[in-house]
Amino acid sequence: METNKHPGDEVPPETAQSGKLPCGTCQGSGVKDGKPCPNCGGTGEITVLVGDA
Ligand SMILES: [Zn+2]
Q1: What are phi and psi of 17, to 5 degrees?
Q2: How far is ligand 1, taken at its centre, from the CA of residue 40, in Å?
Q3: Model pLDDT for residues 11-49, shown as the tens digit of each residue
Q4: Distance 3 CA to ligand 1 centre (A)
Q5: Distance between CA atoms of 3 and 36, rounded to whole angstroms?
Q6: What pTM was estimated for this model as a whole?
Q7: How many angstroms separate the alpha carbon of residue 50 from the centre of ligand 1?
Protein backbone atom coordinates (compact mmCIF):
# COMPACT_ATOMS: atom_id res chain seq x y z
CA MET A 1 0.00 0.00 0.00
CA GLU A 2 1.30 3.41 -0.97
CA THR A 3 1.89 5.88 1.83
CA ASN A 4 2.46 9.62 1.90
CA LYS A 5 5.82 9.19 3.57
CA HIS A 6 8.51 11.65 2.58
CA PRO A 7 12.28 11.16 2.82
CA GLY A 8 12.48 13.27 5.97
CA ASP A 9 9.68 11.48 7.77
CA GLU A 10 10.61 9.05 10.50
CA VAL A 11 7.31 7.24 10.10
CA PRO A 12 4.33 7.36 7.71
CA PRO A 13 1.80 10.11 8.56
CA GLU A 14 -0.89 7.58 9.42
CA THR A 15 1.26 6.03 12.14
CA ALA A 16 -0.27 6.13 15.61
CA GLN A 17 1.44 8.48 18.09
CA SER A 18 3.22 10.35 15.33
CA GLY A 19 3.48 14.11 15.28
CA LYS A 20 4.57 16.93 13.00
CA LEU A 21 7.70 18.99 13.32
CA PRO A 22 8.99 21.79 11.09
CA CYS A 23 11.33 20.41 8.49
CA GLY A 24 14.94 21.23 9.35
CA THR A 25 16.07 21.18 5.75
CA CYS A 26 13.79 24.02 4.57
CA GLN A 27 13.11 25.55 8.01
CA GLY A 28 9.43 24.75 7.59
CA SER A 29 9.00 26.74 4.40
CA GLY A 30 8.56 23.71 2.15
CA VAL A 31 10.95 25.26 -0.35
CA LYS A 32 14.64 24.54 -0.70
CA ASP A 33 16.77 26.38 -3.27
CA GLY A 34 13.65 27.54 -5.11
CA LYS A 35 12.25 24.02 -5.43
CA PRO A 36 9.96 21.86 -3.30
CA CYS A 37 12.02 20.60 -0.40
CA PRO A 38 13.14 17.02 -1.08
CA ASN A 39 13.23 16.20 2.60
CA CYS A 40 9.59 16.93 3.41
CA GLY A 41 8.15 16.81 -0.11
CA GLY A 42 7.29 20.51 0.00
CA THR A 43 5.00 20.25 3.01
CA GLY A 44 7.35 22.14 5.33
CA GLU A 45 6.91 19.60 8.05
CA ILE A 46 8.06 16.11 8.81
CA THR A 47 6.32 13.32 10.66
CA VAL A 48 8.11 11.90 13.67
CA LEU A 49 7.26 9.28 16.22
CA VAL A 50 6.41 11.05 19.46
CA GLY A 51 5.44 8.03 21.52
CA ASP A 52 3.33 8.25 24.63
CA ALA A 53 5.84 9.76 27.06
ZN1 LIG B 1 11.53 20.55 4.02
Answers
A1: 60, 30
A2: 4
A3: 998 899 999 999 999 999 999 999 999 999 999 999 999
A4: 18
A5: 19
A6: 0.80
A7: 19
d(CA 44, CA 16): 21
Q: What is the pLDDT of residue 51?
A: 82
What spacing in Å lies between the alpha carbon of 19 and ligand 1's midpoint? 15
Calculate how far, in angstroms, residue 52's C-alpha sits from the geometric centre of ligand 1.
25
Q: How is 23-50 classified by DSSP, letter by letter?
A: -TTTTTSSEETTEE-TTTTTSSEEEEE-
The SS3 assignment for 4 reads coil
One-letter amino acid of 53: A
Look up the domain containing 45 and give its range. Answer: 1-11+18-53
Total number of domains constituting the chain: 1
